[in-house]
Amino acid sequence: MDTNGVDLLERKLFTIMDDAAVEFVNKYVNEDGTLLWRKDWPGMDGSDDPYEGFMNLALLYVLGGRDELKSISRHIWEGITWWLVACTGSIL
Predict the structure, then answer these.
(1) Which residues, including other chains, have CB under 8 Å from residue 14's CB and lie 6 or more apart?
(2) I need a surface site. Which of 17, 57, 65, 89 has the fewest CB within 10 A?
């Protein structure tokens, strides 16, 4: 396959991943950037846990994903951070 064919396949893969990322966010994140989760947070093994499901949105953007992933990932980061502070009093 020539270089143009590879480029087209890479772009198609990014389009599929972009669409899947947006669908994932729409399914698991509230409009304010917080996660769809219970009201009470009984505990966790690390404050990084809620971030882990969404950390690759920014990576996908940096590698060539659609521009809106940058603002989506920041919005979710801010929402999760606010949520953790509200639930636990800390992000540590």
Answers:
(1) 60, 63, 64, 65, 66
(2) 89
Q: How far apart are CA 83 and CA 64, in angstroms?
A: 29
Nearest to 25 by CA among 62, 91, 85, 71: 71
In whole angstroms, what is the distance from residue 72 CA to residue 70 CA? Answer: 6
* Helix, strand, or coil (residue 52): helix
Q: Confidence class of residue 37 from pLDDT cuts 50, 70 and 90? A: confident
Q: Taken in order 43, 48, 35, 24, is the CA torsion positive or negative?
A: negative
Helices (H), 29-67: 49-52, 56-63
The single-letter DSSP state of residue 45 is: S
- What's this model's pTM, rounded to 2 decimal places? 0.79
Q: At what angle do helices 3-28 and 68-88 cross, to 10 degrees?
A: 30
In angstroms, the CA 84 to CA 92 distance is: 9
